[in-house]
Amino acid sequence: NAGVTQTPKFQVLKTGQSMTLQCAQDMNHEYMSWYRQDPGMGLRLIHYSVGAGITDQGEVPNGYNVSRSTTEDFPLRLLSAAPSQTSVYFCASSYSVGTGYREKLFFGSGTQLSVL
Amino acid sequence: GQQLNQSPQSMFIQEGEDVSMNCTSSSIFNTWLWYKQDPGEGPVLLIALYKAGELTSNGRLTAQFGITRKDSFLNISASIPSDVGIYFCAGQLTRTSGSRLTFGEGTQLTVNP
Asked: Which among A109, B37, B52, B97 could disulfide-bond with B43, CB atoms 3.0 to 4.6 Å apart, if both were Cys?
């Protein structure tokens, strides 16, 4: 029972490099999202998707791109990494039955990203 | 935008003690949630609250949805070492499409055996 799977677990980048954080869920959840966690700031929403082919910006979207070609996968792309993007990144998914249940998020185990 | 203030930021307690933490908002929420994050893992939902005044328990955990809709409280009774972690409150204005969770800064709990 995998749930939400994130890869890689750890990553070190140099400023200006690009990379993709992978997220996959096997629960057939419609809603998927990306958060970043910084000390003393809680979890902040980067981007989210309510279904395949649909994405939208969250609270801190600058510097990140997403796409949702399948229900299962929701990759997060850093186009040109900056030190300010050093953080722990979490992917989360949930049901989206009508108008409810989105708040019951299932989180992956996170990706620790350092940008030098 | 909406902000949640969670307190205390950290707590150091002895095993067996009770714990209280709270979350306050500058605006009203219609859903309050409490998550726990174990070291090296993602947060896990503990309790969800949907009505003002609601009091809900999950084992040794009890959470309350404040009457003003601007606050919520989490109590842990008879703490044990596995209670260690970061506890996050989160609020949601509506359950409709596009609504987002706002998370507090977290309370880091340390339990000494």
From this structure: B37
Q: Nearest CA of chain B to the CA of A111: how many Å?
A: 10
CA distance to partner chain B, nearest, from residue A16 (Å) = 27
- What lies within 8 Å, CB to CB, of B113 at 6+ separation is B15, B81
Partner residue opposite B45 with nearest CB, options A58, A99, A104 = A104
What CA–CA distance (Å, rounded) separates B80 from B110?
Answer: 10
The distance from CA A44 to its chain's CA centroid, rounded to whole angstroms, is: 11
Residue B1 pLDDT exceeds 60: no
Would you state the pLDDT for residue A100? 52
Contact call for residues A33 and A11 (beta carbons, < 8 A): no
DSSP string covering B43-90, please? EEEEEEE-STT-EEEETTEEEEE-TTSSEEEEEE-S--GGG-EEEEEE
CB contact under 8 A, B42 and A104: no
CB contact under 8 A, B95 and A50: no
Per residue in B19-70, pLDDT (tens digit) is 999 999 988 998 899 999 999 899 999 999 989 999 999 999 999 999 999 9
